[in-house]
Design goal:
This protein is of the alpha/beta class. It has one domain: Rossmann fold. The protein has nine helices and seven strands, in the order H-E-H-E-H-E-H-E-H-E-H-E-H-H-E-H. The two termini are 32 Å apart.
């Protein structure tokens, strides 16, 4: 009986994911490890994607890999470019159903050594851009009575880390912003979630994904975050997971 129930649930999830066909999404930070994994999952599910990044060469590579994706280049240190991105993204597909605020940077330095420019960049990219995109695109989602804003936070959204005070502040802020925004938009049929991944094998902070996989006892892959987004999108209209804490298992120990 239990196995039949699970098979039925599997069919239901596949059906829900099929219902994502022709949904419209904007993904920021689309050329990084997590962003690219999200774009790939969306394209495979039939979602129409606007992919944003700041590096023209990497955006060209993304477009070659996914020719149907619409590319937008923007510098999130410049608020006017973020406003332009929001407006352009809405025009491409005559509104959006999904916004994934994935763009983020981190600089590891003690506060006494951190440059003001580094502080401003982390706040601009990690938090201010989310505010601007959520403001413009959230208003459009209200008008259509549906939508989903998914913010990519971090374990640092709840955990203080020496040498990363400003990064933590931006991610703590993102958590508070997401929870409050969710309360504001829920009555309009718009969901807001924040995913807070633990250590992930990406180039974030100048790291090497392969070295991180080999050196960490437990680490997430970018595909794990993309899969979590697909799960959130597959939830029923009644269900809303406002926070997702995503942590890696130490598979080496579990296989001993």
């Amino acid at each position: 009986m239990k196995s039949r129930n699970w098979r039925g649930r599997g069919r239901r999830l596949k059906s829900l994911i099929k219902n994502l066909d022709n949904k419209r999404a904007l993904v920021t930070g689309a050329t990084g490890g997590i962003g690219k994994a999200i774009v790939k999952s969306f394209v495979e599910a039939g979602i129409k994607v606007v992919a944003c990044g700041s590096d023209a060469q990497r955006l060209d590579g993304l477009h070659r890999e996914f020719p149907r994706v619409i590319i937008e280049k923007a510098d999130f240190n410049k608020s006017d470019e973020v406003f332009r991105l929001a407006e352009n993204s809405l025009k491409h597909y005559d509104n959006l159903d999904i916004l994934v605020n994935n763009a983020g940077i981190g600089v590891t330095k003690d506060v006494v050594d951190l440059e003001l420019s580094d502080y401003e960049s982390m706040m601009n990219i990690n938090l201010r851009s989310v505010f601007i995109l959520s403001k413009i695109i959230g208003r459009a989602m209200i008008s259509q009575g549906s939508g989903y804003i998914i913010n990519i936070g971090s374990g640092a959204s709840t955990t203080p880390i020496a040498g990363m005070a400003t990064y933590c502040a931006s991610k703590y802020g993102l958590l508070g912003f997401s929870e409050s925004l969710g309360q504001e938009l829920r009555s309009y049929g718009v969901k807001v979630s924040i995913i807070m991944p633990g250590s992930t094998a990406t180039h974030f902070g100048g790291g090497d994904p392969r070295k991180r996989i080999n050196s960490k006892p437990g680490i997430l892959l970018p595909e794990d975050i993309a899969d979590t987004i697909m799960y959130l999108l597959s939830q029923s209209k009644r269900a809303w997971s406002s926070q997702v804490n995503l942590r890696p298992l130490d598979l080496n120990k579990s296989q001993d």
